[in-house]
């Protein structure tokens, strides 16, 4: 007889709910498993197995309570316990397997097999535990179906769960986990109800024996209810505990996630490039600053080797370093900073500062590099050293650099017993070019001069700019002879004209040479002595070289004393003017006088202007002295006029430095006004250096000319200018230099020169004066050549004003005698 049965729907619902909750709890626990190890792992494994095992069991028995059979039912204790044990053990095995190979399908498959086996075994053993007066007959088809349902659903549940788990950072993870729990719940309850559907209960009549045979070991439904209650209690405790722990864990994860996000944003927005690479040097992270520094976008560089940002010549060393580090047994590097070079995407190599750290995890080593672009800083550093050691205009080493190098070279020369030469080079007339043509021309000239001289140096030598128009050359391993030769070559080289814009510039240099070891054992002394020798070269007429000699120091000392004395002389009225008459060749009358300065030194006596005028020019004192000369001479001329002497020309020597003063014309004008001298009796003697720069000179000369002043070219024949060149200058007088006159009767060549100058001057309508006439023969030959005037010891040395008066007096008397004679 087949028995009838019905279900209590509420209990059915509760049973399913229990299956779902148990699934949820145990799946969560399983996910913990993979992150734990040792004891903790076993605890979680046990908890998970119990959770799901009891869940399956509770589901089963609550569902059984929901199932009312028309006969009383008891349960066999042993089999009930066995069913629990089977469920728990099967789940434990399943979870152990699943948690090892979470990502692998096969492990999930085997896990699902064990879980479904657990569910099925529990169910059918649980069914066997029923003690009643009926036999259970299973429909084989539904029986197999129940097992298939259990397997497929648990497989789906596990798969879904771990899929969601893997992508846990997405939204609604909890809901997704609940969904997979529902599927697992479906596996359990689906199996159960299908299994129940497979069963039919065939009454066997009242078989008390059978029932009693088991009575001692059987439990009734009340006990069953308690058991389930306890099971549920255990289950809920586990669930609660696990969710509590889970929340703690989640909080921690959230916190980690937050920190991770924060680090990510810091890394992405950092000013320094942050690059991560794996042990093979493959780039795995690349921030914004790295993009800005190396020009590679994140997506084009990730996965590439670090080699792409390392200049080719460093790659080998870099790769070796990487391998060595890994081979060294993973000692960690934290924040080691080095300065290296990097390679940009556009091929540009630039300076970087790399701070390297390594991180070793399990078997892998990772490299993290913080990279800073220091090319700007490097550039600045270089600029600073250049500023400190290089002359910015010519880019030559400067004085500081030179001193260091010279000291080293001296040490080297001492060791090798070699001699060393120091050349001190000063340009002649540079100040003049700079003042008249402007600084840009001057600068250009300095650069060109440095280029020309650079030709003469080799690697071990050094050319430095000492400042202004001074250069120093150091030649280690150079003897006297060679130094002389090279000095002459440099002098010749500099004589060649320089071209700049429309100017053709001529320059020369003076070179002083000191030798190691004769002239000093220290850098400073060698430079100082070369400088002293250079002054000697200047004194010797410039455009020459001089070796230092010890007597030069005495000379320098004398010069120093002289300079100090000269400053005092101006204040102490030690200066005086002498006058030398200029005589008409044919009449022998005094046409003019040349004012010549004298210095009456309180101790040294009379000092020659040839000695102190160059010094005054060098120091600038010439301006003050020159103005005094003009004023004194003009006052004297006016005085003679007042005293009634026939008016004569007053010739005044003007030095280049005076003439170049922009206030020069005004100063002269002021003096004329003050002294009330008639400008037609005032003559300025200029040297050829003045007229070398016509652009500046001509307008000034014209201004002076307009004032009625006469202009004379002094020392003619010694300079560079040609006669034809003079046409453009508004000159009145030409003075033939003394050097031609002194040999005019001995040297045929000089005689020819004098004659040519006189002819030329006459044709240009210039008054010609011969200087330094000492003999009557000289005068005679000048007369024959048609010279206008002469000046020299033959007539008179330069004399004091009072003596000039006597000469003027005599001249006046002679004139009147001549006039009488004529009459
Ligand atoms: P300088 O302008 O060529 O002056 C002529 C020089 O020749 C004078 O030398 C004069 O004394 C000298 N002298 C004249 N006749 C004879 C002679 O027959 N035989 C010889 N051997 N010498 C003669 P001093 O006075 O010593 O002047 C030397 C130079 O100093 C001048 O050469 C001139 O360049 C400069 N100087 C003199 N006074 C002044 C001045 O007030 N201002 C400037 N800027 N320079 C001056
Ligand atoms: Ca003169
Ligand atoms: Ca002269």
Report on the structure:
This protein is an alpha+beta fold. The protein has four domains: 5-239, no CATH class; 270-378, 2-Layer Sandwich (Beta-Lactamase), CATH 3.30.450.20; 392-549, Alpha-Beta Plaits, CATH 3.30.70.270; 575-808, TIM Barrel (Alpha-Beta Barrel). The strands form seven sheets. It has an eight-stranded mixed β-barrel with strand order 20-21-23-24-25-26-27-28, surrounded by five helices. Strands 9-8-12-11-10 form a five-stranded antiparallel beta sheet. The model is unreliable at 207-216 (pLDDT under 50). One calcium ion is lined by residues 714-715, 735, 771. Residues 580, 595-597, 608-610, 613, 626, 629, 653-655, 714-715, 738, 771-774, 791-793, 798 line the site of ligand C2E. It holds the Pfam family MHYT. Residues 559-812 form the EAL domain. Residues 336-386 form the PAC domain. It comes from Bacillus mesophilum.
Labels describing this entry:
eight-stranded mixed beta barrel; 28 helices; 823 residues; single chain; five-stranded antiparallel beta sheet; 4 domains; Alpha-Beta Plaits; Beta-Lactamase; binds ligand C2E; alpha+beta; binds calcium ion
Low-confidence stretches: 207-216
Ends apart, CA distance between termini: 196 Å
How much β-strand is present in the residues?
15-25%
Attached small molecules: ligand C2E, calcium ion
Overall pLDDT, averaged?
Answer: 87
Percent of residues in helical segments?
A: 55-70%
The number of strands is: 28
Shape: rod-shaped
Number of helices: 28
């Amino acid at each position: 007889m087949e028995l009838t049965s019905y279900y209590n729907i509420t209990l059915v619902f509760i049973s399913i709910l229990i299956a779902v909750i148990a699934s949820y709890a145990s799946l969560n626990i399983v996910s913990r498993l993979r992150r734990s190890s040792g004891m903790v792992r076993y605890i979680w494994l046990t908890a998970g197995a119990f959770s799901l095992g009891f869940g399956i069991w509770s589901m089963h028995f609550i569902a059984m309570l929901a199932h009312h059979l028309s006969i009383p039912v008891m349960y066999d204790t042993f089999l009930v316990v066995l069913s629990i044990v089977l469920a728990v053990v099967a789940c434990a095995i399943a979870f152990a397997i699943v948690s090892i190979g979470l990502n692998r399908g096969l492990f999930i498959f085997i896990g699902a097999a064990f879980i479904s086996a657990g569910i099925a075994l529990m169910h059918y053993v649980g069914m066997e535990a029923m003690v009643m007066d009926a036999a259970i007959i299973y429909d084989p088809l539904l029986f197999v179906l129940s097992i298939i349902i259990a397997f497929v659903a648990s497989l789906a549940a596990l798969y879904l769960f771990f899929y969601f788990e893997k992508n846990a950072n997405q939204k609604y993870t909890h809901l997704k986990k609940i969904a997979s729990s529902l599927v697992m719940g479906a596996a359990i309850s689906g199996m159960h109800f299908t299994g129940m559907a497979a069963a039919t209960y065939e009454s066997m009549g009242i078989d008390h024996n059978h029932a009693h045979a088991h009575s001692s070991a059987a439990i009734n439904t009340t006990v069953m209810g308690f058991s389930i209650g306890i099971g549920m209690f255990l289950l809920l405790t586990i669930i609660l505990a696990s969710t509590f722990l889970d929340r703690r864990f989640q909080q921690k994860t959230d916190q980690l996630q937050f920190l991770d996000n924060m680090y990510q944003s810091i890394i992405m927005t950092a000013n320094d490039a942050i690059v991560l690479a794996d042990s093979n040097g493959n780039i795995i992270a690349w921030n914004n600053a790295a993009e800005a520094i190396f020009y590679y976008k994140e997506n084009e560089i990730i996965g590439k080797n670090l080699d792409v940002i390392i200049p080719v010549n460093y790659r080998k060393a870099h790769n070796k370093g990487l391998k060595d580090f890994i081979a060294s047994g993973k000692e960690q590097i934290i924040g080691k900073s080095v300065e290296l070079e990097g390679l940009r995407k556009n091929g540009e190599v630039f300076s970087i500062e790399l701070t390297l750290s390594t991180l070793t995890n399990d078997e892998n080593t990772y490299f993290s590099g913080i990279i800073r672009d220091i090319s700007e800083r490097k550039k600045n550093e270089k600029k600073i050293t250049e500023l400190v050691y290089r002359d910015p205009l010519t880019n030559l080493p400067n004085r500081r650099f030179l001193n260091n190098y010279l000291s080293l070279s001296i040490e080297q020369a001492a060791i090798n017993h070699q001699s060393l030469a120091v050349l001190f080079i000063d340009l002649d007339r540079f100040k003049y070019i700079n003042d008249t043509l402007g600084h840009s021309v001057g600068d250009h000239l300095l650069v060109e001069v440095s280029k020309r001289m650079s030709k003469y140096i080799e690697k071990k030598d050094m050319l430095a700019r000492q400042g202004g128009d001074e250069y120093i050359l150091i030649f280690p391993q150079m003897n006297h002879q060679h130094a002389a030769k090279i000095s002459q070559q440099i002098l010749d080289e500099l004589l060649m004209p320089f071209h700049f814009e429309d100017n053709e510039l001529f320059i020369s240099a003076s070179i002083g040479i000191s030798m190691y070891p004769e002239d000093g054992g220290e850098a400073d002394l060698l430079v100082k002595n070369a400088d002293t020798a250079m002054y000697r070269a200047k004194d010797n007429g410039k455009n020459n070289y001089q070796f230092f000699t010890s007597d030069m120091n005495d000379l320098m000392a004398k010069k120093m004393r002289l300079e100090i004395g000269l400053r005092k002389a101006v204040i102490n009225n030690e200066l005086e003017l002498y006058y030398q008459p200029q005589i008409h060749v044919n009449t022998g009358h005094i046409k003019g006088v040349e004012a010549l300065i004298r210095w009456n030194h309180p101790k040294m006596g009379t000092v020659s202007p040839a000695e102190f005028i160059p010094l005054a020019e060098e120091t600038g004192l010439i301006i003050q002295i020159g103005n005094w000369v003009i004023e004194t001479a003009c006052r004297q001329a006016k005085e003679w006029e007042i005293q009634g002497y026939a008016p004569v020309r007053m010739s005044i020597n003007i030095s280049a430095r005076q003439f170049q003063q922009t206030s020069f014309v005004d100063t002269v004008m002021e003096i004329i006004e003050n002294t009330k001298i008639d400008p037609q009796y005032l003559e300025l003697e200029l040297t050829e250096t003045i007229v070398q720069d016509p652009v500046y000179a001509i307008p000034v000369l014209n201004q002076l000319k307009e004032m009625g002043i006469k202009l004379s070219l002094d020392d003619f024949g010694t300079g560079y200018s040609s006669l034809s060149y003079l046409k453009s200058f508004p000159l009145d007088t030409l003075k033939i230099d003394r050097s031609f006159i002194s040999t005019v009767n001995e040297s045929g060549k000089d005689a020819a020169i004098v004659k040519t100058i006189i002819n030329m001057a006459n044709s240009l309508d210039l008054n010609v004066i011969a200087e330094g006439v000492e003999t009557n023969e000289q005068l005679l030959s000048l007369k024959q050549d048609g010279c206008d005037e002469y000046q020299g010891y033959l007539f008179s040395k330069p004399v004091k004003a009072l003596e000039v008066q006597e000469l003027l007096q005599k001249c006046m008397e002679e004139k009147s005698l001549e006039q009488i004679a004529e009459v």
